Amino acid sequence: MADRPLTGSNDRSFENTLRDAIPRPQSAGGSPCAACPVRDLSFCNALTDEELDHLNRVSSDVSLTSGQSLFDEGAPADHVYNVTTGAMKVYKLLSDGRRQITGFLFPGDFLGLATRDAYAYSAESICSTTLCRFNRQKLENLLKDFPKVERRLLGIASDELALAQDQMLILGRKTAKEKIASFLLMLSNRAQKSGNKSNPISLPITRTDMADFLGLTTETVSRTITQLKTSGMITLMSGNEVRLENRDALEDMAEGE
Amino acid sequence: MADRPLTGSNDRSFENTLRDAIPRPQSAGGSPCAACPVRDLSFCNALTDEELDHLNRVSSDVSLTSGQSLFDEGAPADHVYNVTTGAMKVYKLLSDGRRQITGFLFPGDFLGLATRDAYAYSAESICSTTLCRFNRQKLENLLKDFPKVERRLLGIASDELALAQDQMLILGRKTAKEKIASFLLMLSNRAQKSGNKSNPISLPITRTDMADFLGLTTETVSRTITQLKTSGMITLMSGNEVRLENRDALEDMAEGE
DNA sequence: CGGGCTTTTGAGGAATTTCAACGTATGTGG
DNA sequence: CCACATACGTTGAAATTCCTCAAAAGCCCG
Lengths: 257, 257
Prior knowledge:
The structure is a homodimer.
Chain A: E1 22-23, H1 49-57, E2 59-64, E3 69-71, E4 79-85, E5 88-93, E6 99-105, E7 110-111, E8 122-125, E9 129-135, H2 136-145, H3 147-173, H4 176-193, E10 200-202, H5 207-214, H6 218-230, E11 234-237, E12 241-244, H7 247-254
Antiparallel strand pairs in A: 1-2, 2-9, 3-8, 4-7, 4-9, 5-6, 5-8, 10-12, 11-12
Helix pairs in contact in A: 4-7, 5-6
The structure holds a DNA duplex.
């Protein structure tokens, strides 16, 4: 914990300067959005190819190396983002450095929804990541013409809300073992939903980040994973992959049965 | 804990039969919605008096006594609601009866947002409560004509999401004392936002419900409140009221400072 | 006034954290 | 190519917070 900045959670005002932001070609024969790899996963899929071009005009690309900050809690919320490749974590800090990761974001996930003019959390990449960046103001103007995007965003927000409620159940009422089991299953389900293989799951997340997501310490996470491994529920493989050996049993464990 | 139903959390299918549902007079000279006490707090305030009449046509009133269930997790999500008076709790259950309350709802709060066709949580009144009930399907049809309501709902969902993230920080990373302090402040802020007095706050919530909201046991809640009382931070008054004696100190405590 | 419910208080125990040390991987520079 | 630095992961032992079990006290309402 001592290796984390002891910065207060609300007094910072950082948004990545985004020197890497790459403006998009303007309708140079077919919007780049039309060929976006995560188009079907993200809110953009509410639009037709033609309409998509309007979106393209207010967006640019951002590249982050692993561990780079995108913005900090409290900074003016000038942009929203869509993850295209890689993965992000979003988190909140207490003044003494305690951290709660409130979510991990994968390709297609939306980032930066906020009603206030400041971000309610910080966002940082957990591996090499690219995002699609929208100017909030311009996007909002666009939304007025495309209510179906707004509807899609409402659906996304509702889904996120449901996830958040699941997470509250995990944080408030589950044991360490149940938390880890729930987490592995969540990753597996999520991989499946975005069209990746759901069983040997890739785990590009450090023990520390898992701990901060599940309300545990790294030591407890490590011990618990060892336990799961020893009892034959999972197998740790090379390349940060985890094989779920008995999905049903893991599901029972996650629900405390 | 033994006094709670040991019902699984996903296999129930209850929505209050609502014999008490009172259909609204149909534009009998001025929509009842126009005179709604929580109109300014709820999503309805996106509409003009005239437009409000459309909303009135798809809504009815529901009355609940204290402790009555409105719907259970897993039931078909046929309605959404607005709290008009009283208060509700929403929660999720584990199969062994462990419970996580994910939120308390007060007048003006919106209830039932879901993308799936089943409720993701159960809802129950914590005191005598009335709600405004909308048929989901009819409301959604209406939304197509009133995108500004959809925008308002998106704003509401975003606010709820921010609250949920605060709650995750509380559940995952705060101590018992910090949790209680955060909770009291949250109630106070909320009361203020809906135009009630923010200092001697009314606490219509049992120790058990507080515990299930904060990821603690009733005993720990009781002990911690006693501690706060003894140290002069709060005073327990008659009628379930709590006076915050030193708001600043309480805020510091809530943030772990 | 008595019964049922919620709240408080106490004592002991358990899960998890803390502190500390060691092991493992990865990359850098000599 | 190897030594070294650095980050991450594992393991152990002690400490602590919070939970569990138990009982008494307070409160509300018929």
